Amino acid sequence: MALEQGETVGLVTCHVAGASCEIVTLDSLRPNLGIGAALIQAVKMVACAAGCRRLWLTTTNDNLDALRFYQKRGFELVAMHRGAVAAARKLKPEIPLTGDHGIPIRDEIELEMAL
Q1: 2-114 sits in which CATH class?
Q2: How confident is the model at residue 45 (pLDDT cuts 50, 70, 90)?
Q3: Is the dihedral of CA 64, 65, 66, 72 positive or negative?
Q4: In this predicted structure, what is the pLDDT of residue 3?
Q5: How far from 53 is each of 28, 65, 71, 79, 97, CA to CA, in Å?
Q6: Which is higher by pLDDT, 33 or 46?
Q7: Does the pLDDT value for residue 5 go beyond 90?
Q8: pLDDT of residue 33
């Protein structure tokens, strides 16, 4: 959790499994102030302390802001799971058909960083 004067300004959740650490969620309540980058650094420290060799996450094909953000911080695109969102909608029907910038939400994109 990122705090500023006692107020929550960001939150990251992660899951460590073996030599991998997945960023499950990353939220910054004040964009463009370095909060997200600081949260990634905190996760990297946790992952390294746990002996992880890989930090990874997925996002959807419409999330251009996230793709830009993560790549600027050293993550690389490693896989595209075509049609994965259709399967996710079976569990979460509230996932919209169209996302950011009017782009249809269809695929999951996997990014990773070697530790």
Answers
A1: alpha beta
A2: very high
A3: positive
A4: 86
A5: 25, 26, 18, 18, 35
A6: 46
A7: no
A8: 87
